[in-house]
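Protein 1 of 2
SEQ + STRUCT:
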Amino acid sequence: MQHLLLSLVIFTVSHDSSPSAGPNGLHIESFIYGGLKLFTHLSLLYTLFIRHCYLPSSFMQSTIRPFVKNKGGDLTDPNNYRAIALANMETKILESILMDKLHSYDDCDKYQYGFKKGHSTAMCTSAVKKSLIIIEIAAVMSFCLL
């Protein structure tokens, strides 16, 4: 497990392009140029987190920042902003490793549309419309059978 996690840490750091630092101020470049010793220590740390089912509170800290939705829009309109959470870079690395390894078998995940790769909230609207059409057809058919 140790060598596998080390290779995952190296791969994740080399493919991360997060431009923003979290609350501790460390950018991805700190990890990219940290070298094999840093990757080894991160690998050991992540292995201990997983084995002992523990994360320190500093790994769960984030900074909330406003993000402009439409730069050409009204910058004084609060609806033109959305909040983004900036986590610490070492947390992002661990999250990336875990997200590739974890899969959900919950039926509710089929109906998760926002914040899911390849999905949008427009798909949710379409699903609701289709459901209403099916319900309407079923109601008409049951009325006709009476």
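Protein 2 of 2
SEQ + STRUCT:
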Amino acid sequence: MTHALCHLALAAVMALAPALSDAAETACPQHFVRGTAPDLANPKLAARTRELCYSEFAVLHSGVTRTPLWSAGHLTRAQIDTARALDRDGTFHPDPNLPKRERAELADYARSGFDRGHMAPSGDMPDRQAQQESFTLANIVPQNPNNNRDLWSDIEAAVRARIEALHRRLAAMPAHGWPGLRRKLAVLWARSGRALDGADRADWDLSEAILWSALQDATRTAAPA
């Protein structure tokens, strides 16, 4: 029997464990275990959110932080092998599906000191279309360069290794919570003259970025581990 493993790459804000509940409706069920997206139990996180469906992954984008709260997609050994044969060839770009007021722009990252960190990894994408889609800024969060290039890169590699070892299809969900969101976004967008308004700052006062990734076997009923 073919097994399915789901990688849930979540990028959520505030305390993610209590922030996510079991299920939410989705326009792209093919990217989730049993076709069900995670739900946001904390209503503060839901302000100005939009689900974006791409060919190989989905994201829940926040118009407050102008970053994804989570990304999710299925990943198989065959996809990993195909992706390895592709050279990295993508161009970072603002997402035209988002209102300008709610999306990140390339200028927001210029001279910010932060890397443009993928949530759904470009290294998992099996074709050029999906690879280019992964470079949308709607799939990007500002990351400390050392974290993005070392620890987070190692986590992405470990996810692939896990899938290959199990010979299963996994649902992958990388996630990042932002305990230092106010400070980090203030630095990031102040350089381009953009900032969160007062009402938003009151809801998104956190202190450090936390990135994490979850895997779920789609053939099982247990929660991701």
